Amino acid sequence: MSATEQGAWTVDEPVARRHLLVVLPHPDDESFSSAGTMAMHADAGVPVTFLCGTYGDMGRNMGRPFFANRETLRDVREQEAREACRILGAELAFMGLRDKTVEFEDPDELAARIEAVIRERAADLVITFYPGKAVHPDHDALGEATVRAVRRLPETERPTLWTVAVGPPEQLEEDLGTPDVRVDIRPYADRKMAALEAHATQTKAMFERFEAGSDQDEHLRRRLEEGRRTESFYRLDPDRSDPPG
Q1: How many CB atoms are located within 10 Å of the residue 133 CB?
Q2: What range defines the domain where residue 30 resides?
Q3: Between 20 and 30 A from 116 (CA), which of 23, 211, 238, 244?
Q4: pLDDT per residue as tens, the chain (245 positions)
Q5: How many domains does the chain have?
Q6: Which domain CATH number covers 132?
């Protein structure tokens, strides 16, 4: 681990020693945001758990060509998540929340459930979305609940909290500054891509557009190209009452 000129830390070895807990709302969130970091820890013998908020069954994508429908999408996405976690060496657990409605859940009740998992796993590193800077209401809501969960713990028992912000890098740096942590995932890039491909209902059409040279997903293409080298996170103080931005 080394400091960059901008003050961020570049990480090329596991940070968690007891357990890495990733708390995100949808199957595939883990692969886009943190797959390399998860694989790095798993390969070093650090237990990794992906606590997935929903089954993603309200998603619009059904595969290409369609191999899922509204009735089967939950089961298909659950199996996709299991395969991605197998590739990454992670345990998968579901909270069973209703997709696209996490923002309407009681955040303190969610926090209590997440706190219980943190305690059970003795997690010393938790990854979630940056509340208010994660684009999707489910992302923001589960990120906020996870921050509350860490805040509920005595300071001496709190895990390190890394958060994922989503959006154009220039805008994020203007709002939040430079990410605090950059994880060098180049040795795990192929595993990350394999995990993404496991979420075929959501990614197959996207990868086909990339191969065809479509500029429809240019922002996402650039994000994934960078994501094959580095995964970036903001450290968040759980006692902060109102995150910047």
Answers
A1: 22
A2: 16-235
A3: 244
A4: 554 444 578 999 999 999 999 999 999 999 999 999 999 999 999 999 999 999 998 877 776 666 767 778 999 999 999 999 999 999 999 999 999 999 999 999 999 999 999 999 999 999 999 999 999 999 999 999 999 999 999 999 999 999 999 988 889 989 999 999 999 999 999 999 999 999 999 898 888 877 777 666 677 777 788 878 999 999 999 997 555 44
A5: 1
A6: 3.40.50.10320
